[in-house]
Amino acid sequence: MSDDCLFCKLIAGEIPAKKVYEDDICFAFDDIEPEAPVHTLVVPKQHFTDLQSGVPADVLGHLLSVVPEVAKLKGVYESGYRCVINTGPDSATTVPHLHIHILGGIKMGRSTFEGSQRE
């Protein structure tokens, strides 16, 4: 746990969160600034900054295996959902604690990116 990490404080119960799922390895909660009708984050309980911070394969595999379960709990398993993991300075991540975004509840289009070469 990192003392100054927002997500570590949520996991520890120091800050309230709308919990969706929890087990020994991970914690899932609704995003406080949702970008879709369903926007839930799955985070490891152990602090890892991002994918490049030495996350053990078993932890990463577990996080990914929990995503469909959380999608079922949020009611988007059948209709579909998007998973996103931001890594590095260009990713626009706002909390330096590895997390998987689960976005759904609306038909999604293609992602657009600032500075995209597509027209």
Secondary structure: elements and pairs:
Blueprint: H1 6-11, E1 19-22, E2 26-30, E3 38-44, H2 57-73, E4 81-84, E5 100-104
Antiparallel strand pairs: 1-2, 2-3, 3-5, 4-5
The proportion of residues forming helix, as a percent range, comes to: 10-25%
The CATH architecture would be 2-Layer Sandwich
Q: Report the uncertain regions.
A: none
Structural class: alpha+beta
CATH topology: HIT family, subunit A
Provide the number of structural domains.
1
The global form is globular
Q: What's the total count of β strands?
A: 5
Strand order of the largest sheet: 1-2-3-5-4
Instruction: Tell me what portion of residues adopts beta-strand conformation.
Output: 15-25%
Quaternary structure type: single chain
CATH class assignment: Alpha Beta
Largest sheet: 5 strands, antiparallel
**Whole-number average pLDDT?**
91
Distance between the termini: 43 Å
Order of helix and strand elements from N to C terminus: HEEEHEE
